[in-house]
Amino acid sequence: MLVHAVTDHEGILIAGPRIELPAGAIDDMMSADRGPAGVELSSLVVGDAVEGSLHGRVMLHRFGSRRSRAILAGANDYAAAVSSVALLIGFEPVICDHRPAFARPELFPDVEVRGGSAAEFIRGHARRDDIVIVLTHDAAIDVPVLMAALDADVAYIGALGSRRTHDDRCRRLIEAGVGRIPLDRIHSPIGLDIGARTPEQSAVSIMAEVLASSTGRSGVALTHTSGSIRPAACVRPRVATRD
Predict the structure, then answer these.
(1) Around Cβ 74, how many Cβ atoms within 10 Å?
(2) Are 139 and 166 in contact (CB under 8 A)?
(3) Residue 129, SS3 per DSSP
(4) Which contacts qualify for 192-195: CB closer than 8 Å, 24 or more apart?
Protein backbone atom coordinates (compact mmCIF):
# COMPACT_ATOMS: atom_id res chain seq x y z
CA MET A 1 0.00 0.00 0.00
CA LEU A 2 1.31 3.47 -0.87
CA VAL A 3 0.61 6.38 1.44
CA HIS A 4 1.06 10.00 0.34
CA ALA A 5 1.63 12.74 2.93
CA VAL A 6 0.65 15.57 0.61
CA THR A 7 -0.66 18.55 2.57
CA ASP A 8 0.80 21.00 5.03
CA HIS A 9 -0.76 22.08 8.33
CA GLU A 10 -3.24 24.28 6.47
CA GLY A 11 -4.28 21.56 4.05
CA ILE A 12 -2.45 23.09 1.09
CA LEU A 13 -1.15 20.56 -1.41
CA ILE A 14 2.59 20.00 -1.27
CA ALA A 15 4.97 17.44 -2.72
CA GLY A 16 5.45 14.49 -0.44
CA PRO A 17 7.38 11.24 -0.42
CA ARG A 18 5.66 7.93 -0.98
CA ILE A 19 5.84 5.80 2.14
CA GLU A 20 5.63 2.01 2.05
CA LEU A 21 3.48 0.81 4.94
CA PRO A 22 3.08 -2.74 6.23
CA ALA A 23 -0.32 -4.39 6.36
CA GLY A 24 -2.42 -3.07 9.23
CA ALA A 25 -0.51 0.18 9.57
CA ILE A 26 -3.50 2.30 8.51
CA ASP A 27 -5.64 0.71 11.22
CA ASP A 28 -2.95 1.50 13.77
CA MET A 29 -2.64 5.10 12.61
CA MET A 30 -6.38 5.68 12.65
CA SER A 31 -6.77 4.26 16.14
CA ALA A 32 -3.81 6.27 17.44
CA ASP A 33 -4.61 9.38 15.36
CA ARG A 34 -0.93 9.71 14.55
CA GLY A 35 1.01 9.69 11.29
CA PRO A 36 4.13 7.84 10.17
CA ALA A 37 6.36 10.52 11.71
CA GLY A 38 4.15 11.10 14.74
CA VAL A 39 2.21 14.01 13.24
CA GLU A 40 -1.47 14.46 13.93
CA LEU A 41 -3.90 13.57 11.17
CA SER A 42 -7.09 15.47 10.58
CA SER A 43 -8.45 13.04 8.01
CA LEU A 44 -7.66 10.04 5.91
CA VAL A 45 -8.89 10.06 2.30
CA VAL A 46 -9.07 6.84 0.35
CA GLY A 47 -8.87 6.96 -3.44
CA ASP A 48 -9.29 4.27 -6.11
CA ALA A 49 -11.24 2.16 -3.64
CA VAL A 50 -14.65 1.82 -2.09
CA GLU A 51 -15.27 4.54 0.51
CA GLY A 52 -14.24 3.31 3.91
CA SER A 53 -12.00 0.58 2.50
CA LEU A 54 -8.36 0.51 3.55
CA HIS A 55 -7.22 -0.86 0.21
CA GLY A 56 -5.79 1.12 -2.69
CA ARG A 57 -4.08 4.48 -2.76
CA VAL A 58 -4.36 6.44 0.45
CA MET A 59 -3.75 10.14 1.01
CA LEU A 60 -2.94 11.47 4.46
CA HIS A 61 -3.88 15.01 5.42
CA ARG A 62 -1.42 16.13 8.05
CA PHE A 63 -2.10 18.93 10.51
CA GLY A 64 -0.53 20.26 13.69
CA SER A 65 3.07 19.74 12.55
CA ARG A 66 4.00 23.00 10.87
CA ARG A 67 7.74 23.36 10.39
CA SER A 68 9.50 26.41 11.73
CA ARG A 69 11.01 28.51 8.96
CA ALA A 70 14.62 29.61 8.74
CA ILE A 71 14.41 33.03 7.06
CA LEU A 72 17.82 33.82 5.61
CA ALA A 73 18.59 37.39 4.56
CA GLY A 74 21.13 37.29 1.74
CA ALA A 75 21.52 34.84 -1.13
CA ASN A 76 25.15 33.70 -1.04
CA ASP A 77 27.39 30.72 -0.26
CA TYR A 78 26.53 30.93 3.43
CA ALA A 79 22.81 30.91 2.67
CA ALA A 80 23.26 27.80 0.52
CA ALA A 81 25.13 26.01 3.30
CA VAL A 82 22.83 27.13 6.13
CA SER A 83 19.70 26.23 4.16
CA SER A 84 21.05 22.71 3.53
CA VAL A 85 21.71 22.09 7.23
CA ALA A 86 18.38 23.70 8.20
CA LEU A 87 16.53 21.38 5.82
CA LEU A 88 18.38 18.39 7.21
CA ILE A 89 17.27 19.07 10.78
CA GLY A 90 13.66 19.92 9.99
CA PHE A 91 13.39 23.64 9.26
CA GLU A 92 11.84 25.17 6.16
CA PRO A 93 14.41 27.60 4.69
CA VAL A 94 13.36 30.80 2.91
CA ILE A 95 16.14 32.82 1.28
CA CYS A 96 15.39 36.52 0.70
CA ASP A 97 17.46 38.91 -1.41
CA HIS A 98 16.43 42.09 -3.22
CA ARG A 99 19.15 41.63 -5.87
CA PRO A 100 17.83 39.74 -8.92
CA ALA A 101 21.32 38.50 -9.84
CA PHE A 102 21.56 36.73 -6.47
CA ALA A 103 17.96 35.68 -5.80
CA ARG A 104 17.97 32.94 -8.44
CA PRO A 105 16.04 29.76 -7.53
CA GLU A 106 18.29 27.59 -9.71
CA LEU A 107 21.20 28.37 -7.39
CA PHE A 108 19.37 27.00 -4.34
CA PRO A 109 17.64 23.70 -5.15
CA ASP A 110 14.84 22.57 -2.81
CA VAL A 111 14.71 25.98 -1.08
CA GLU A 112 12.17 28.79 -1.43
CA VAL A 113 13.88 31.89 -2.85
CA ARG A 114 12.17 35.29 -2.68
CA GLY A 115 13.22 38.48 -4.40
CA GLY A 116 12.60 41.78 -2.67
CA SER A 117 13.20 43.03 0.84
CA ALA A 118 13.84 40.47 3.57
CA ALA A 119 12.61 43.01 6.13
CA GLU A 120 9.28 43.36 4.32
CA PHE A 121 8.89 39.60 4.10
CA ILE A 122 9.51 39.27 7.84
CA ARG A 123 7.03 42.03 8.67
CA GLY A 124 4.37 40.49 6.46
CA HIS A 125 4.90 36.78 7.00
CA ALA A 126 7.15 35.89 9.97
CA ARG A 127 5.71 33.77 12.76
CA ARG A 128 6.94 33.56 16.34
CA ASP A 129 8.30 30.05 15.80
CA ASP A 130 10.46 31.17 12.86
CA ILE A 131 14.16 31.98 13.06
CA VAL A 132 15.91 34.83 11.22
CA ILE A 133 19.56 34.72 10.18
CA VAL A 134 21.26 37.71 8.53
CA LEU A 135 24.06 36.77 6.12
CA THR A 136 24.58 39.93 4.06
CA HIS A 137 27.42 41.94 5.70
CA ASP A 138 25.63 45.07 4.50
CA ALA A 139 24.45 47.46 7.21
CA ALA A 140 21.86 49.00 4.88
CA ILE A 141 20.18 45.58 4.72
CA ASP A 142 21.12 44.17 8.13
CA VAL A 143 19.62 46.94 10.25
CA PRO A 144 16.09 46.90 8.74
CA VAL A 145 16.03 43.08 8.81
CA LEU A 146 17.10 42.95 12.46
CA MET A 147 14.54 45.61 13.39
CA ALA A 148 11.81 43.65 11.63
CA ALA A 149 12.88 40.41 13.35
CA LEU A 150 12.85 42.08 16.77
CA ASP A 151 9.40 43.56 16.10
CA ALA A 152 8.10 40.15 14.95
CA ASP A 153 9.45 38.55 18.14
CA VAL A 154 10.74 35.51 16.25
CA ALA A 155 12.23 32.60 18.16
CA TYR A 156 15.87 33.23 17.24
CA ILE A 157 17.79 36.08 15.60
CA GLY A 158 21.37 35.73 14.41
CA ALA A 159 23.73 37.78 12.27
CA LEU A 160 26.95 36.82 10.53
CA GLY A 161 29.99 39.02 11.06
CA SER A 162 32.84 39.95 13.38
CA ARG A 163 32.51 41.57 16.80
CA ARG A 164 33.44 44.91 15.23
CA THR A 165 30.71 44.46 12.60
CA HIS A 166 28.16 43.61 15.27
CA ASP A 167 29.16 46.63 17.39
CA ASP A 168 28.57 48.83 14.35
CA ARG A 169 25.18 47.19 13.77
CA CYS A 170 24.20 47.79 17.39
CA ARG A 171 25.19 51.44 17.15
CA ARG A 172 23.04 51.85 14.04
CA LEU A 173 20.11 50.04 15.67
CA ILE A 174 20.29 52.30 18.74
CA GLU A 175 20.37 55.34 16.48
CA ALA A 176 17.26 53.96 14.78
CA GLY A 177 15.46 53.79 18.11
CA VAL A 178 16.04 50.20 19.25
CA GLY A 179 16.67 49.85 22.99
CA ARG A 180 19.74 48.13 24.41
CA ILE A 181 17.77 45.30 26.03
CA PRO A 182 16.28 43.99 22.74
CA LEU A 183 19.79 43.98 21.25
CA ASP A 184 20.66 41.14 23.64
CA ARG A 185 18.35 38.89 21.61
CA ILE A 186 20.65 39.09 18.59
CA HIS A 187 23.20 36.26 18.41
CA SER A 188 26.34 37.75 16.88
CA PRO A 189 29.00 36.72 16.21
CA ILE A 190 26.69 33.86 15.27
CA GLY A 191 27.31 30.19 15.97
CA LEU A 192 29.13 27.97 18.43
CA ASP A 193 32.90 28.12 18.80
CA ILE A 194 33.97 25.02 16.82
CA GLY A 195 36.67 26.63 14.69
CA ALA A 196 34.51 26.90 11.57
CA ARG A 197 36.19 28.39 8.51
CA THR A 198 34.15 27.45 5.43
CA PRO A 199 30.47 28.30 4.77
CA GLU A 200 29.60 24.65 5.32
CA GLN A 201 31.41 24.48 8.66
CA SER A 202 29.86 27.79 9.66
CA ALA A 203 26.41 26.40 8.82
CA VAL A 204 26.95 23.52 11.26
CA SER A 205 28.09 26.01 13.92
CA ILE A 206 25.09 28.30 13.31
CA MET A 207 22.39 25.64 13.33
CA ALA A 208 23.97 23.99 16.38
CA GLU A 209 23.55 27.28 18.22
CA VAL A 210 19.93 27.51 17.02
CA LEU A 211 19.22 24.07 18.49
CA ALA A 212 21.03 24.87 21.74
CA SER A 213 19.10 28.13 22.04
CA SER A 214 15.74 26.45 21.37
CA THR A 215 16.28 23.74 23.98
CA GLY A 216 18.01 25.86 26.61
CA ARG A 217 21.18 23.81 26.42
CA SER A 218 24.70 25.18 26.83
CA GLY A 219 26.35 23.94 23.65
CA VAL A 220 29.20 22.58 25.80
CA ALA A 221 30.64 19.17 24.86
CA LEU A 222 28.52 16.45 26.49
CA THR A 223 31.61 14.87 28.02
CA HIS A 224 31.89 17.96 30.23
CA THR A 225 28.24 17.91 31.37
CA SER A 226 26.15 15.77 33.70
CA GLY A 227 22.54 14.63 33.71
CA SER A 228 20.34 13.62 30.80
CA ILE A 229 21.70 14.19 27.31
CA ARG A 230 18.20 14.49 25.87
CA PRO A 231 16.51 17.90 25.71
CA ALA A 232 13.28 18.38 27.61
CA ALA A 233 11.82 20.55 24.83
CA CYS A 234 11.28 20.13 21.10
CA VAL A 235 14.29 20.96 18.95
CA ARG A 236 12.32 23.54 16.98
CA PRO A 237 11.92 26.88 18.77
CA ARG A 238 8.36 27.81 19.71
CA VAL A 239 6.73 25.26 17.46
CA ALA A 240 3.17 26.35 16.94
CA THR A 241 0.17 24.07 16.56
CA ARG A 242 -3.10 24.56 14.79
CA ASP A 243 -5.71 26.29 16.96
Answers:
(1) 26
(2) no
(3) coil
(4) 192/219
The whole-number pLDDT of residue 228 equals: 80
Rounded to 5°, angle at Cα 81 from 135 and 162: 35
Alpha-carbon torsion (125, 87, 96, 169), positive or negative: positive
| CA dihedral angle for residue 242, residue 152, residue 203, residue 67, rounded to 10 degrees | 10
118: Cα separation from own chain's centroid: 15
Q: Which residues does residue 70 pair with via DSSP β-bridges, in sequence order?
A: 93, 131
What is the structure's pLDDT at 204? 97
Among residues 141, 164, 215, 109, the alpha carbon closest in space to that of 133 is found at 141
For the chain, the straight-line distance linking the first and the last C-alpha, in angstroms and rounded, comes to 32
Contact 147, 119 (CB under 8 A): yes
Block means of pLDDT (10 residues each) for the chain, 243 residues, are 40 41 48 39 36 39 63 97 94 95 92 95 94 92 96 95 93 93 94 95 96 88 81 46 36
Question: Which of 41, 43, 46 has the alpha carbon at shortest distance from 63?
Answer: 41
Residue 191: left (phi > 0), alpha (psi -120 to 50), or beta?
Answer: left
User: Global pTM?
Assistant: 0.69
Q: Which residues of 129-167 are buried (b: 16+ CB within 10 A; e: fewer)?
A: bbbbbbbbeeeebbbbbbbbbbebebbbbbbbbeeebbe
